[in-house]
UniProtKB/TrEMBL annotation:
<protein>
    <submittedName>
        <fullName>Methyltransferase type 11</fullName>
    </submittedName>
</protein>
<dbReference type="GO" id="GO:0008168">
    <property type="term" value="F:methyltransferase activity"/>
</dbReference>
<dbReference type="Pfam" id="PF13649">
    <property type="entry name" value="Methyltransf_25"/>
</dbReference>
<keyword id="KW-0489">Methyltransferase</keyword>
<dbReference type="InterPro" id="IPR029063">
    <property type="entry name" value="SAM-dependent_MTases_sf"/>
</dbReference>
<dbReference type="InterPro" id="IPR041698">
    <property type="entry name" value="Methyltransf_25"/>
</dbReference>
<keyword id="KW-0808">Transferase</keyword>
<feature type="domain" description="Methyltransferase">
    <location>
        <begin position="47"/>
        <end position="144"/>
    </location>
</feature>
<dbReference type="GO" id="GO:0032259">
    <property type="term" value="P:methylation"/>
</dbReference>
Amino acid sequence: MDKIEKGFIINSFHEAASLYADATKKLGFWKSEKYAFEKYLYQNDAILDIGCGTGRTTFALYKTGFQNITGIDLTLAMLNEAEKIAHEYNLDIPFILGDATNLPFKDASFDKAIFAFNGLMQIPQRQHRTLALKEINRILKPEGIFIFTTHDRDKNENYLNFWEQEEIIWCGGKQDERLYEFGDILTSGTFQKDTYLHIPTQLEVLDCLEEAGLTVIESFYRSELFDENEDVNDFSSDCRFWIVQKSGSAF
């Protein structure tokens, strides 16, 4: 059985592109995103929206004054939908096809970067997620800020029994052969089936950030600070926000 690779991720989102486009028009910012973006992004910043998909955060940022923004995504079908929406709204936003583990930009090209909706954790294998973090560090200017979200394996008590059972499965070598490491799952969501996702612990994320040369300046669990509306909760499960910065620079 073949391991989960980039092609699997692309196909997963290709099939769901039109549904994500509908959500882009409907949802806009989460309350938690609005807080983080207003606190750490400045309107003259050059911003890279990684894993932009159909442009939910890209368009919301642009419409609130953050107009020096570029969207990049791995899936052409998602970008095609984003460009349709941009044309519909008459917005001039560049959308680029590209891979977070090999960003097509020069060093220190952006002031800030975001990777919304747990997108970083849809990159298979820890070494590749760490490579993406290193790439993000590379394209950030000095004192650059990166905002992203992940699930939190230790935080959500509703899934403690699930992870106990998963650990037994992995220790017995009976896990899905397509997966790489404990914390990997294949899940079906509102928009798509057989979606790959890695559910990390906080310690795992911290270790990857340290290896990539990024320092945490704020982190919070969404539901502890914000009561998101029903549409947002239907669209996305609870998650942890990470706001990090290039090491060696003070915010």
